[in-house]
Specification:
Length: 210
């Protein structure tokens, strides 16, 4: 029997694209809206579109912080954070004033507009990910790794050992991070067509082995 994936639904962002992707992959999933849902989870996805402070405030509002910490830090449940979901895993963001979950010892910072380099903010569109380590989310022999990005804030390369992939947009930043059972990606795999489907499949296969 396939394990069920719990999408953390903290009422921020549209979850439809993620649900459609998981349906195409024929993966079992449910929406986790309550502490009880999180406590029963086997695999977690933490999505996110919007502002950092609102994201953290919603997690607090719906009582999801403590059960998430219990599942992730103590029970070692595999989790994948997407875009804002990845930022929420850090200690904070220049976008707001609230404290993040603190699972990664870093903070998200803002891209600086550069007229000479024609660097527009937000970073929006398709871009490549330079894979530093294969196995967890990526496999040797796979073709190019190109994903869809929409973000104004990014996570700097804070610890070489915890960065699985990087992307260049005026500066090289950490587009894939991980620690133990915790993974975060800056891009939107749910909007990245077959590249995103492959990543979700790889993550779920890894989570099942773990």
């Amino acid at each position: 029997m396939k394990p069920r994936i719990t999408i953390v639904d903290y009422r921020i962002g549209n979850l439809g694209s993620i649900e459609n992707m998981l349906k195409k992959l024929e993966l079992n999933y449910c929406l986790g809206q309550t502490p009880g849902d999180i406590k029963k989870s086997e695999i977690l996805i933490l999505p996110g579109v919007g502002a950092f402070d609102q994201g953290i405030m919603n997690l607090h509002k719906f009582g999801l912080i403590d059960p998430l910490n219990e599942q992730i830090l103590h029970k070692k449940t595999p989790i994948l954070g997407l875009c804002l979901g990845m930022h929420l895993m850090t200690k904070g963001s220049e976008e707001g004033e609230k404290r993040g979950l603190g699972w990664f010892d870093t903070k998200a910072v803002r891209f600086q507009t550069d007229e000479k380099k024609r660097l527009k903010v937000p970073h929006m569109g398709w871009n490549d990910v330079n894979i530093r380590e294969y196995d967890h989310l990526f496999r040797q022999g796979e073709d190019e790794h190109c994903y869809y990005f929409v973000h104004t804030y990014y996570v700097p390369i804070f610890n070489e050992a915890l960065v699985l992939g990087t992307t260049w947009y005026g500066i090289e930043f950490a587009s894939v991070i991980y620690k133990d059972n915790i993974f975060g990606v800056q891009f939107h795999p749910e909007k990245s067509h077959h590249f995103g489907m492959r990543l979700f499949r790889n993550f779920c296969q890894w989570a099942c082995r773990a």
